[in-house]
Amino acid sequence: MATASRELATRLGLPLISAPPQSGLWLQWTTSGLALQAGATRPQRLIVDFAAGAQGHRAAQLGHRRELVARACGVGGGRDGSIVDATAGLGRDGFVLAALGARVTMLERSPILGELLADGLQRAHQAGHAEIVERISLITTEAAEWLPLQSAETPPRVVYLDPMYAETQRRAAAGKALAMLQKLLEPDDDADALLDVAHTVATERVVVKRHRKAAPLGANAPDYTLTGRSTRFDVYRVSAAPPVGNEES
Q1: Among 2, 78, 103, 136, which one has the highest count of C-beta atoms within 10 angstroms of its own C-beta?
Q2: From CA 86, how far away is CA 20, in angstroms rounded?
Q3: What confidence tens digit (pLDDT) does each residue in 204-235 have?
Q4: Secondary structure, 3-state, 60-100
């Protein structure tokens, strides 16, 4: 893995180290995949894994057809399934949407997180999820810059946003993966502006994932909301397409 480590350090412009640092974050190739780690004695570890663990179980279940993210994005029914996941993060929702047949473009601004996602997708492809992975395009870029440049001939039907919440808003519910992301990434303070950009690109709807009690993103209220136990999906109609439903669950 020494060669892979050198190539990764070169791509990211990061120093290549021979021992874990006493503090901060570092990347390491492990037998399970590329890992983001924190702490030297008993390091926390974050690996993007679509084929195993909770995410693998989620993707394998037919129950994800009833998941709120799928309903909010209007996946199914024979319609065009082009979705831009403009804040991909760990790619969990985007992978589920692709598992349902949508063509998903994942956009991620963090080069480090982009490498973790790419590694996770490659391992998922090798683990028997090739059909799903082949419906996913991963691009490391600023969504607010990439979206306006898309051809008017092939705009996405849906733009999906899941902005990083400020730590104080989700501390109680944050799992280990989210805690690691919060160490790596800054909150998405430009999320309101990204919502405005998304409205100019999507042909049918913009979907925003929010904490259940958080205020709506931007200045305008959503057309309708699908609410779960701890999160909700605010749906903004862009065209006159019929709604999935105005409900809470």
Answers
A1: 136
A2: 33
A3: 999 999 999 999 998 889 999 999 998 999 99
A4: HCHHHHHCHHHHHCCCCCCCCCEEEECCCCCCHHHHHHHHC
| Distance of alpha carbon 205 from the chain centroid | 17
Task: Report whether pLDDT(169) > 50.
Answer: no
Is 188 annotated to bind a ligand? Reply is no
Tokens of 131: 């059909």
Q: Nearest 5°: phi and psi at 26?
A: -150, 160
* Furthest CA-CA distance within the chain: 58
**Phi, psi dihedral angles at 191 (to 5 degrees):** -65, -35
- Residue 56's pLDDT is 59
Query: Considering Cα of 196, then 198, then 202, then 207, what sign does the dihedral take?
Result: negative
- Report all structural domains of the chain as residue ranges with CATH numbers, in order of start: 1-47 (no CATH), 48-237 (3.40.50.150)
Instruction: Give the mean pLDDT of 170-189.
Output: 67
Phi and psi torsions of 152, nearest 5°: -65, -15
223 among the known binding-site residues?
no
Nearest to 128 by CA among 88, 99, 93: 99
Does 157 appear as a known binding residue? no
Question: Which token pair is 39?
Answer: 């702490």
Side chain identity at 153, as an amino acid letter?
Answer: E
Q: Are 160 and 84 in contact (CB under 8 A)?
A: yes
190 labeled binding residue = no
- Strand-strand pairing, 136-140 and 82-85: unpaired
Task: Quote the DSSP letter at residue 148.
Answer: G
92 annotated binding-site participant = yes
pLDDT digits (tens, 9 = 90+) for 53-97: 666 555 556 455 568 999 999 997 666 679 999 999 999 999 999
